[in-house]
Amino acid sequence: MTSTQGLRVVPTLTPPRAFDAACRMVVDYLARVVPLDAWAVTRVTDGHQTMLVTADSGYGLAPGLSTPWSSSMCQYMVAGSAPRIVPDTREVPDLERIASEAAAQGMEVGTYVGTPIVTGDGALFGTVIGMNRAPVDPALVAQEPLLDLLSSLLSSVLEADTAAVDSARALERAVSDAETDALTGLLNRRGWERWLAREDERFRRFGDPASVVVLDLDGLKTVNDTEGHDAGDRHLRHCAAVLRSTIRGTDPLARLGGDEFALVAQVGVDDAHHLVERLREALDAAGVPCSIGAAAFTVAGGFPGACAEADALMYTDKRARRRGGRAVPGPRPEPPSLPTA
């Protein structure tokens, strides 16, 4: 028997398909080894920098908090105009300016640390970031190799996790008959709810942008009452075809029952707003007008929160359309915000 006595067992960084677990381990490790007031892994998308995982003892940072990328210190680090480790932000003009703006809002940033996390094709995914209220010893710059090593490891885990998720999604798209609406060929309510439950954790893990769009076909009852249910079925199939032709093939589209449809657009808030306008124009032009509501997925609320908000906005739109007007199809909210990062 081989003895393991005296051997040091080193745990692996993370099991496959666990980018969020790797992020948690990295920020916790940095908080122990380089004890600043806050460490975080962030996602940069749709013009914002959003906290995915945090280890915070001085700022109150939490997953889901967001700041515009244009007011983030990380933009200068990514562009190469600021160092990755800045023990005293007063020594870098761009960072000093942002620190001054943050201080005016009660958030002191005396030290900044940041390094990018990139995708497999070299695009920016997000950052590892550290902050401290007061400037620290300049010797902190000696930690740059460690910082770069950890961000490279996260990039590798991200690539593996993303590939695994893509493969799983491709497999899952071959849905069973039990999850398909027989009339339209779209997902039925069961398939829709399974997709949301399955994808909620994945979207939270990566901080991917997404918006839920809920639609209710106007006038179906009138068609059924005046032309018969066969005409009503054709009306529903026509609506489904228009929706399918207007969205991307990878975005899930469902008939939830009756005259209600729903989809998830894997885009940010602004692009989702434009999509809703395209949907409305296409549906109106095809003679299948719908009341529409849209809401953004957030790390905090997940798909349950987005679905509830989109559904409420759809009914607001329907009431406005009955009065002869049109409600805004969905809010264009900023995510929960922090002064700067």
Keywords:
Beta-Lactamase; GAF-like_dom_sf; GGDEF domain-containing protein; disordered N terminus; 2 domains; 341 residues; single chain; Alpha-Beta Plaits
Question: So what's the CATH class of the largest domain?
Answer: Alpha Beta
Give the biggest beta sheet: 6 strands, antiparallel
Overall pLDDT: 87
Q: What shape does the CA trace take? A: elongated
**Would you identify the CATH architecture of the largest domain?**
2-Layer Sandwich
What does this structure look like?
- This protein is α+β, with helices and mostly antiparallel strands and 341 residues long.
- The N terminus is likely disordered.
- This is GGDEF domain-containing protein.
- It comes from Actinomycetospora straminea.
Précis, in short:
The chain is 42% helix and 19% strand.
